[in-house]
Specification:
The complex is a heterodimer of chains A (267) and B (285).
Chain A (H helix, E strand, L loop, with lengths): L1 H28 L16 H8 L1 H34 L6 H12 L2 H14 L6 H12 L1 H12 L3 H9 L4 H30 L2 H7 L6 H10 L4 H24 L2 H4 L9
Helix pairs in contact in A: 1-12, 2-3, 2-12, 3-4, 3-6, 3-7, 3-9, 3-11, 5-10, 6-10, 7-9, 8-9, 9-12
Chain B lengths: L12 H24 L3 E2 L5 E2 L5 H6 L2 H34 L2 H15 L3 H11 L6 H7 L13 H25 L3 H9 L4 H12 L1 H16 L4 H5 L7 H11 L3 H32 L1
Antiparallel strand pairs in B: 1-2
The chains are: A mainly alpha (267), B mainly alpha (285).
């Protein structure tokens, strides 16, 4: 049938388009010589080793991982009580905070970044590592906010009702019923922020760019002075981390549902 | 547990921390930036408080006006190309089995999480003379000699579509996957071919979604900062590049802030205009 043919063609074209840069970069990353030749000549994993052995690449990697881990934790800590309040209470004006949580992500990033730059410069904290963590947490708080709202909305309220009729107070209900139910959404919210923070450039650059090198900043700085195959290996390393994290979410959670589809039992 | 209005002060407790964080670290920085856009530049420090429209006046010169026009044109092109590819693709994806969907979604999320730096690096490799696609064309005999495809407008556009496409698919996904399947079944029973059902039933049913997606991708593309620098020539630089250049390298924070405020106003105006046009068409239909 023509529909199937069209689908195959479309899927193939989009697939090639999405994969093409990665194939070339993967090829470059295992090149034996220190030059960008494709197809690769020889085979060597030394550029991957360099991410961990070269002092400056390793420092950038550690910076990025620390930043991603702390900002993701902070984003979740901001989003969780807010999402809980919006689910538990009738207070329409409180939605303004949800809007505030989404705004930094919707605006062109350069604006959020410049806002942070002027703010941190004005309060005299420009360039401190913790300012980057806070900036990333605010910039990405949208993601746990969205996943947690989905999570709360999927809770059967009669279940919670039952617990409270049996005598559980708010706190007990939250701890024994609600938190276990939304844990998968909490984890995926954390993971989304973690992966995106790891790869974020402009906000990190405008807050700590000159005092702390994250991996994207390091790659961009390296780009200016010519290519080194380590950039290619870092790229592949990053994609692998992202694919692993999202693969795990898909393995242990319902990924289509997390992204807005209805329950998985329907198909 | 039903939703109840908060009764005691204690009921507001969960709101305290998120509210403080969002106000202190988003509302205040954003307001600071607006304030700074009226300040005067100070050669020694960052700026001196003032109330002047100089920064805005300077921005409305021919040069910056041209950059703004180019940025908007580029973002519109990216939005249109992305939706043209992503809409039928996402539609097909939601019709595939759950397993196929999950594999594609993981791949799309992985590409989405790629840093702009990495996308720029990957495409600059792909478009380069030494390691690029033209080598493949030479190998299969379609081209006589490898050549560089960058810097250039085509390279910038390709890179930005690459960056925005996963985002477009994920924005379209929830609306398309939730579309009532009986709609299409009805059209098919009445004898419509799959293509006709898609064009005459699916697309009109999701017109609002399409407009909303166009706007979101447009604003997303407007923020692209590194790709025009890595893949383009200076004439392909967007407003985001100039804002950063003024803020970081020229240390002219007030001017950068004025451009940023202008960019926000511009995006809001275009969003409003599009909604207005979309709403009017809806009313006619």
């Amino acid at each position: 049938m023509s529909g199937t043919v069209f689908r195959r063609v479309l899927f193939t074209v989009v697939g090639i388009f999405l994969a093409a840069p990665l194939v070339v970069v993967a090829g470059v990353s295992v090149n034996e010589r220190q030059s960008l030749t494709f197809p690769p000549q020889g085979f060597s994993l030394s550029w991957y080793a360099q991410i961990f052995t070269d002092q400056s690449w390793r420092a950038a990697l550690v910076n990025s991982l620390t930043l991603a881990a702390t900002s993701a934790a902070l984003a979740v800590i901001i989003a969780l009580p807010l999402a809980w309040f919006l689910w538990r209470r009738i207070a329409p004006w409180a939605n303004i905070f949800q809007l505030l949580g989404v705004a930094p992500f919707i605006l062109p990033p350069v604006i959020t970044a410049l806002g942070f730059l002027t703010f941190w410069a004005t309060v005299g904290a420009y360039g401190q590592a913790w300012t980057a963590a806070i900036s990333h947490a605010i910039f990405f708080v949208t993601l746990p906010l969205v996943t947690l709202s989905l999570g709360f909305n999927s809770i059967d309220r009669s279940l919670v009702e039952a617990a409270s009729t049996m005598g559980a107070n708010d706190r007990t209900v939250l701890r024994t019923v609600v938190l276990p139910l939304i844990l998968p959404y909490l984890v995926s919210g954390y993971a989304f922020v973690f992966v995106l923070s790891l790869n974020e450039y402009i906000v990190a650059y405008m807050t700590v760019g000159f005092t702390m090198e994250t991996l994207p900043i390091k790659i961009f700085n390296a780009l200016r002075y010519g290519y080194t195959p380590t950039m290619a290996s870092v790229t592949i390393f990053f994609v692998a981390v992202a694919a692993l994290v999202f693969g795990l979410i898909a393995r242990f959670g319902d990924l289509p549902k997390l992204l807005g589809a209805l329950s998985g039992d329907e198909k | 547990m039903r939703r109840e209005p908060p009764r005691t002060i204690g009921d507001y407790a969960p709101l305290v921390f998120p509210a403080i964080m969002l106000v202190v670290f988003f509302v205040i920085p954003f307001s600071t930036m607006i304030m700074v856009s009226f300040f005067r530049r100070d050669q020694a420090g960052f700026y001196t408080p003032d109330f002047t429209f100089d920064n805005y006046e300077r921005f409305l010169s021919a040069f910056f006006g041209g950059v703004l026009g180019f940025s908007i044109m580029l973002a519109v092109m990216v939005a249109i190309v992305c939706v043209l590819i992503a809409f039928p693709f996402t539609w097909m994806l939601t019709r595939a089995s759950r397993r196929v969907q999950v594999v594609w979604l993981v791949a799309i999320l992985s590409v989405l999480s790629l840093s702009e730096v990495i996308i720029g690096f990957a495409w600059s490799t792909l478009f380069s003379r030494t390691a690029g696609i033209t080598n493949l064309l030479v190998a299969v005999g379609l081209m006589s000699e490898a050549r560089a495809l960058l810097p250039g407008f085509g390279a910038v556009l390709t890179g930005m579509v690459y960056q925005a496409l996963p985002y477009t698919i994920l924005v379209l996904y929830p609306a398309i996957v939730r579309l009532d399947p009986t709609l299409i079944e009805a059209a098919r029973t009445l004898g419509a071919s799959p293509v006709r059902a898609f064009a005459n039933v699916v697309v009109p049913a999701l017109r609002n979604t399409i407009v909303a997606t166009l706007i979101m991708v447009f604003v997303f593309a407007l923020g692209s900062y590194l790709l025009p620098q890595i893949l383009g020539r200076p004439q392909h630089w967007t407003l985001s590049v100039l804002i950063t250049d003024q803020a970081i390298y020229q240390s002219n924070m007030p001017f950068a802030a004025a451009m940023a405020v202008f960019l926000v106003l511009m995006s809001l105006a275009l969003v409003g205009l599009t909604l207005l046009v979309g709403g009017r068409r809806e009313a006619q239909a």
